[in-house]
Design a protein that fits this description.
This protein is globular. It is of the alpha/beta class. Helix 1 packs across helix 4, helix 9 packs across helix 11 and helix 9 packs across helix 18. The protein has a 5-stranded mixed sheet, covered by helices on one side. Strands 9-10-8-11 form a 4-stranded mixed sheet. Helix content is about 45%, strand content about 15%.
Length: about 425
């Protein structure tokens, strides 16, 4: 047993070395004493790569450039990874307690094991500084555990169904407000060999969005919330019905071919090339439809959105959304430059709120007065939807403990692949949540 444990540790250490330089290789010129005037390096890891999130990527660089200009003794070193590689990297680095000084995290269940492991430091002092009263109500609470706040949110997201107006017009389609109308749109497109919905379910959380909305619309917001918390069962008839409706969509050829083996980035490209009519995704995608000059203007002009339709006699309304706070910034507990890292986070969050609206077209977690800013209509319309939402259900995999979240994501992929029945899907969730891990 001891030999196996030693071997596992060696593998983890090797992975850390292979997957990119750990803190040790970034430590040149680092010192915990900024007062001395010597160079202080802050290592930052984030998930806004130039290729997939140009607007956010440019803002990160702008903020860093400004901060370094104002603080000549500070050097910010970046490590940039796309979503899934970022999550994998976090696992490797946390296993050897070698997290970056500043990084990005999701809220609730994703955050919890890092806090329990003593890897993130509390940031409550920053909420009492210049940032006091700056955040949208309910956003920082999602990053709090046992009364302490362990990250500061950057974004607030909801997940609309984006659609291509030109494709809809070509086939005489109207925006659906009921699920039956939505199914007719899917049927019309599929019969004409047009991909109705772009889905890259290799990433799994993408399929979870579809299940969550169906669960909310059929079983109701409270039923879904209680099942995730473990105070109700996923075997509830409405939740099982939602899983069945997922498989009905698969049978209708609602999604692109090979969806379970394709990443979100791959199918996003298909949607942006006009090869699919609809795409369910968070408002972090807004820059690609509003401010990203690398995307042709005719395509940006062709994108609209609609709310996930209501389902027959379902127990939810059309203004109930899946979404919530996006990524937030953490500071590593064992950072040798913790004080400087906190100052940088405070600056970054404030500037992000000021720049993200016009610079990237994303909805920030901080309050911003948009009354005097000229903004794209798509952005304004979605911001209005946030303001009038009757409910926003945080993404399921973010809410759950890490072990249960992994089960959920694997079961989502199996459900879409028709490898399991809706009843088996429900039982697997109840068993995973019951473990409390």
């Amino acid at each position: 047993m001891k030999n196996r444990a030693l071997l596992a540790l060696i593998v983890v250490l090797a992975l850390a070395a292979i997957s990119g330089c750990g803190r040790g290789s970034h430590d040149n010129n680092r010192t915990p004493d900024a007062i001395s005037g010597e160079k202080v390096t802050i290592n930052m890891m984030h998930l806004f790569p130039e290729a997939g999130a140009l607007g956010q990527h440019q803002i990160v660089n702008k903020i860093i450039d400004e901060y370094q200009a104002d603080h000549p003794n500070i050097i910010i070193k970046q490590e940039v990874l796309e979503n899934e590689r970022y999550k994998a990297r976090m696992k490797v680095l946390s296993a050897v307690n070698d997290l970056p000084d500043v990084g990005m995290t999701w809220a609730a269940g994703y955050l919890q094991p890092f806090v329990e492991g003593g890897l993130f430091t509390p940031l409550d002092e920053l909420l009492q500084s210049e940032l006091q009263g700056s955040f949208v109500a309910g956003t920082t609470e999602a990053y709090a555990i046992d009364g302490k706040t362990y990250a500061l949110p950057l974004e607030f997201n909801i997940a609309p169904v984006y659609y291509n107006k030109k494709i809809f017009a070509q086939y005489g389609l109207q925006i659906p407000t009921t699920y039956d109308e939505f199914l007719q749109v899917v049927k019309t497109l599929a019969e004409r060999s047009v991909v109705p919905i772009a889905l890259g379910n290799k990433d799994r959380w993408t399929g979870s969005l579809w299940y969550m909305y169906l669960a909310d619309r059929v079983a109701g917001t409270e039923t879904l919330a209680n099942a995730i918390k473990g105070t109700a069962s996923f075997s509830n008839s409405g939740l099982v019905e939602a899983a069945k409706r997922v498989q009905d969509l698969v049978d209708m050829n609602a999604f692109n071919k090979g969806f379970n083996g394709l990443s979100n980035d791959e199918v996003k490209a298909e949607f942006m090339n006009g090869e699919a009519a609809m795409y369910l995704m968070g408002t972090w995608e807004l820059p690609n439809y509003t401010t990203n000059q690398d995307i042709p203007q005719p395509f940006r002009d062709s994108i609209g959105f609609f709310k996930f339709p209501v389902v027959g006699e379902g127990k939810s309304d059309i203004d109930s959304w899946v979404g919530g706070p996006g990524v937030g910034l953490f500071v590593a507990e064992n950072s040798p430059v913790k004080a400087e890292a906190k100052k940088f986070v405070e600056y970054f969050v404030k500037r992000w709120g000021e720049e993200s609206v016009t610079g990237a077209g994303v909805i920030p977690a901080t309050k911003v007065d948009t009354s005097k800013i000229q903004l794209p209509q798509l952005y304004i319309d979605l911001l209005n939807e946030v303001n009038k939402a009757t409910n926003i259900t945080l993404f399921t995999d973010v809410q759950m403990a890490s072990g249960a979240a992994e089960v959920h994501l694997n079961q989502i992929q199996a459900l879409f692949g028709k490898e399991i029945t809706p009843a088996e899907f429900a039982k697997a969730h109840d068993a995973a949540i019951k473990t409390g891990k």
